[in-house]
Amino acid sequence: MTAALPLFPLGTVLFPGLVLPLHIFEERYRKLMRDLMALPADEAREFGVVAIRSGWEVEHATPGGESSDGLTTSTSLSLYEVGCSAQVRQVTEHPDGRFDIVTVGRRRFRIVDVDTTAGPYLHGRVEWLDESAGEPGLADALAPGVLEVFQRYLRMLRGETSTGEQLPDDPNVLSHLVAATASLTMEDRQSLLAEPDTVSRLRAERKLLSREVALLDQIRAVPATLAELSNRSAPN
């Protein structure tokens, strides 16, 4: 089963349950917002956030084909195939037509096809990805270990003795929070988003966090604060 979804390419990776504020100033995405706001009140105002693998958008993209690890929609824009839908929760429209919006990641998807001719912004045909736990009982067994190394990582990153935060007990929620919050590369985050289930994501995060903790322990230096590293507010 596939569904139609407007696409919003960004230089970031969105995860289910995570907040993403956006400042909408480009005309094509102003049109997207107007189209979403025109939907009936009982329909979800939802669009797909998909990370840009390479290049950037052009005003008139032309169709292309799949690449080995992404989807090429023009000569200058290549997208990752797995993204996350963003549901619009708050909208502020400015007199000059710009929008400030707050969205929340809702559900993961895989792009099946991209239509570059249907309008000023990209339209995708997507298949929704299940939030599977993986092997029964294993996510619950893995979560405490991932949580422990994540808390250690946060303490080292901030130079504090305690994180002072209440982290989720649900393994799937924890897996998405860790992926979105840790100071990882775009490729690492995208890989975590694309993991088939919670168990696979937690295993990958345990490995990545152990690597980061070892590096921090070795260099004993952090060039930026966590707030600076995890700032997810992005322009279009």
**Residue-averaged pLDDT, rounded?**
85
User: Percent of residues in helical segments?
Assistant: 25-40%
Q: How would you write the strand order of the largest sheet?
A: 1-3-6-7-8
> What is the general shape?
globular
Cα distance, first to last residue? Answer: 30 Å
Report the order of strands and helices.
Answer: EEHEEEEEEHHHHHE
Radius of gyration: 19 Å
Largest sheet: 5 strands, mixed, barrel
Structural class: alpha+beta
Contiguous low-pLDDT stretches (5 residues minimum) are 58-69
- The tally of strands reads 9
Beta-strand portion reads 25-35%
H/I helix tally? 6
Descriptive overview:
With 236 residues, the chain is of the alpha+beta class. Helix content is 33%, strand content 28%. The chain has a five-stranded mixed beta barrel. α2 packs parallel to α5. The longest helix has 22 residues, at 198-219. Mean pLDDT is 85; it is low at 58-69.
